[in-house]
Amino acid sequence: MPTVLTFRLVLAATGLLGALLLLAATFTSVIDITVGTTSKVLDADTAQSGWDRHGPALVLLALLAVFLLLASLRGSRVAMAGLLLCGVVALAIPTIWDRPHVHDSGSIGDVYAEATADPGTGYYLETLGGALILLSGGALLVLGRTPIVEPAPGGSAAERARARRAARAE
Protein backbone atom coordinates (compact mmCIF):
# COMPACT_ATOMS: atom_id res chain seq x y z
CA MET A 1 0.00 0.00 0.00
CA PRO A 2 1.40 3.41 -0.92
CA THR A 3 0.01 5.03 2.23
CA VAL A 4 1.93 2.70 4.55
CA LEU A 5 5.08 3.22 2.50
CA THR A 6 4.63 7.00 2.66
CA PHE A 7 4.06 6.82 6.42
CA ARG A 8 7.20 4.72 6.88
CA LEU A 9 9.22 7.24 4.85
CA VAL A 10 7.87 10.08 7.00
CA LEU A 11 8.84 8.13 10.12
CA ALA A 12 12.32 7.56 8.68
CA ALA A 13 12.67 11.29 8.02
CA THR A 14 11.46 11.95 11.57
CA GLY A 15 14.13 9.65 13.01
CA LEU A 16 16.81 11.25 10.85
CA LEU A 17 15.73 14.71 11.98
CA GLY A 18 15.94 13.52 15.61
CA ALA A 19 19.50 12.31 15.05
CA LEU A 20 20.46 15.63 13.44
CA LEU A 21 18.97 17.50 16.41
CA LEU A 22 21.09 15.40 18.79
CA LEU A 23 24.18 16.32 16.77
CA ALA A 24 23.22 20.01 16.89
CA ALA A 25 22.60 19.81 20.66
CA THR A 26 26.16 18.59 21.14
CA PHE A 27 27.55 21.92 19.98
CA THR A 28 24.93 24.34 21.35
CA SER A 29 24.51 25.51 24.92
CA VAL A 30 22.43 23.33 27.21
CA ILE A 31 22.66 25.70 30.18
CA ASP A 32 23.07 29.47 29.85
CA ILE A 33 24.21 31.51 32.86
CA THR A 34 23.67 35.26 32.94
CA VAL A 35 24.86 37.80 35.48
CA GLY A 36 22.45 40.69 35.51
CA THR A 37 21.99 41.41 31.82
CA THR A 38 25.20 39.92 30.44
CA SER A 39 26.52 36.46 29.80
CA LYS A 40 30.15 37.67 29.72
CA VAL A 41 31.98 37.13 32.98
CA LEU A 42 35.73 37.45 33.37
CA ASP A 43 37.45 34.06 33.76
CA ALA A 44 34.20 32.09 33.79
CA ASP A 45 32.39 29.91 31.27
CA THR A 46 28.75 30.96 31.26
CA ALA A 47 27.48 28.40 28.74
CA GLN A 48 27.67 24.63 29.02
CA SER A 49 27.31 22.84 25.71
CA GLY A 50 26.11 19.30 25.16
CA TRP A 51 29.74 18.27 24.72
CA ASP A 52 30.71 19.91 28.04
CA ARG A 53 27.95 18.08 29.88
CA HIS A 54 27.88 14.69 28.14
CA GLY A 55 31.06 14.32 26.12
CA PRO A 56 30.54 12.29 22.94
CA ALA A 57 27.33 10.61 24.18
CA LEU A 58 24.95 12.63 21.99
CA VAL A 59 27.11 12.14 18.91
CA LEU A 60 27.29 8.38 19.51
CA LEU A 61 23.54 8.18 20.07
CA ALA A 62 22.89 10.11 16.86
CA LEU A 63 25.19 7.81 14.86
CA LEU A 64 23.63 4.73 16.42
CA ALA A 65 20.16 6.07 15.62
CA VAL A 66 21.07 6.57 11.94
CA PHE A 67 22.55 3.06 11.73
CA LEU A 68 19.48 1.51 13.39
CA LEU A 69 17.18 3.57 11.20
CA LEU A 70 18.84 2.20 8.06
CA ALA A 71 18.49 -1.35 9.37
CA SER A 72 14.86 -0.63 10.29
CA LEU A 73 14.15 0.43 6.73
CA ARG A 74 15.32 -3.00 5.60
CA GLY A 75 12.68 -4.56 7.86
CA SER A 76 14.69 -5.53 10.95
CA ARG A 77 12.40 -5.59 13.99
CA VAL A 78 15.44 -5.80 16.28
CA ALA A 79 16.73 -2.55 14.78
CA MET A 80 13.30 -0.95 15.26
CA ALA A 81 13.33 -1.95 18.93
CA GLY A 82 16.91 -0.67 19.18
CA LEU A 83 15.84 2.65 17.67
CA LEU A 84 13.07 2.86 20.25
CA LEU A 85 15.59 2.16 23.02
CA CYS A 86 17.96 4.74 21.53
CA GLY A 87 15.16 7.31 21.80
CA VAL A 88 14.53 6.37 25.42
CA VAL A 89 18.22 6.86 26.26
CA ALA A 90 18.34 10.13 24.31
CA LEU A 91 15.33 11.39 26.28
CA ALA A 92 16.80 10.21 29.59
CA ILE A 93 19.84 12.45 29.17
CA PRO A 94 17.99 15.80 29.33
CA THR A 95 15.37 14.47 31.74
CA ILE A 96 17.64 12.84 34.32
CA TRP A 97 21.00 14.60 33.95
CA ASP A 98 20.20 18.08 32.66
CA ARG A 99 16.80 19.05 34.04
CA PRO A 100 17.85 19.13 37.71
CA HIS A 101 20.74 21.49 36.83
CA VAL A 102 19.25 23.91 34.28
CA HIS A 103 18.63 26.54 36.97
CA ASP A 104 21.86 25.93 38.91
CA SER A 105 24.30 28.80 38.37
CA GLY A 106 27.13 26.90 40.08
CA SER A 107 30.27 28.73 41.18
CA ILE A 108 29.26 31.86 39.26
CA GLY A 109 26.18 32.09 41.46
CA ASP A 110 28.43 31.87 44.52
CA VAL A 111 30.40 34.91 43.35
CA TYR A 112 27.60 37.00 41.80
CA ALA A 113 24.30 37.27 43.66
CA GLU A 114 22.38 38.28 40.53
CA ALA A 115 23.53 35.23 38.50
CA THR A 116 20.78 33.09 37.00
CA ALA A 117 20.85 29.92 34.93
CA ASP A 118 18.30 28.88 32.34
CA PRO A 119 18.00 26.07 29.81
CA GLY A 120 19.68 26.88 26.52
CA THR A 121 18.80 25.93 22.98
CA GLY A 122 20.74 22.67 23.25
CA TYR A 123 18.49 21.45 26.07
CA TYR A 124 15.44 21.78 23.86
CA LEU A 125 17.24 20.30 20.85
CA GLU A 126 18.32 17.19 22.74
CA THR A 127 14.85 16.74 24.22
CA LEU A 128 13.11 17.10 20.86
CA GLY A 129 15.70 14.91 19.12
CA GLY A 130 15.20 12.11 21.64
CA ALA A 131 11.42 12.39 21.34
CA LEU A 132 11.56 12.19 17.54
CA ILE A 133 13.82 9.13 17.61
CA LEU A 134 11.53 7.49 20.18
CA LEU A 135 8.47 8.25 18.04
CA SER A 136 10.14 6.96 14.89
CA GLY A 137 11.35 3.71 16.47
CA GLY A 138 8.07 3.01 18.24
CA ALA A 139 5.89 3.69 15.21
CA LEU A 140 8.12 1.65 12.88
CA LEU A 141 7.98 -1.22 15.37
CA VAL A 142 4.18 -1.05 15.45
CA LEU A 143 3.95 -0.94 11.63
CA GLY A 144 5.93 -4.15 11.26
CA ARG A 145 8.50 -5.68 8.94
CA THR A 146 7.60 -4.43 5.48
CA PRO A 147 10.97 -3.21 4.24
CA ILE A 148 11.26 0.04 2.30
CA VAL A 149 14.64 -0.94 0.94
CA GLU A 150 14.71 -4.40 -0.59
CA PRO A 151 17.73 -6.59 0.22
CA ALA A 152 20.45 -6.83 -2.40
CA PRO A 153 19.93 -9.70 -4.88
CA GLY A 154 23.23 -11.29 -3.86
CA GLY A 155 22.18 -11.46 -0.20
CA SER A 156 21.96 -14.47 2.06
CA ALA A 157 20.13 -17.64 1.12
CA ALA A 158 17.26 -16.73 3.44
CA GLU A 159 16.86 -13.36 1.74
CA ARG A 160 16.86 -14.96 -1.73
CA ALA A 161 14.26 -17.52 -0.62
CA ARG A 162 12.11 -14.74 0.85
CA ALA A 163 12.36 -12.79 -2.42
CA ARG A 164 11.34 -15.88 -4.44
CA ARG A 165 8.30 -16.47 -2.19
CA ALA A 166 7.30 -12.81 -2.53
CA ALA A 167 7.64 -12.97 -6.32
CA ARG A 168 5.46 -16.12 -6.48
CA ALA A 169 2.83 -14.51 -4.24
CA GLU A 170 2.46 -11.62 -6.69
Notes on the structure:
The mean pLDDT is 84. The protein has a single domain, classed as Butyryl-CoA Dehydrogenase, subunit A, domain 3, CATH 1.20.140. It has helices at residues 2-26, 50-54, 57-73, 77-98, 106-111, 121-143, 157-169, and strands spanning 29-35, 47-49, 115-119. The protein has a three-stranded antiparallel β-sheet with strand order 2-1-3. 30% of the residues are buried. The longest helix has 25 residues, at 2-26. The radius of gyration is 21 Å and the shape is elongated. α3 runs antiparallel to α4 (77-98), α3 (57-73) runs parallel beside α6 and α4 (77-98) packs antiparallel against α6. It has 170 residues and is mainly alpha-helical. Helices cover 65% and strands 9% of the residues. The two termini are 14 Å apart.
The count of DSSP E runs of length 2 or more, i.e. the number of strands, is 3
Distance between the termini: 14 Å
Binned strand content: 5-15%
Uncertain runs are: none
Helix content: 55-70%
Mean pLDDT value: 84
Helix-strand string: HEEHHHHEHH
Strand order of the largest sheet: 2-1-3
Largest sheet: 3 strands, antiparallel
CATH architecture: Up-down Bundle
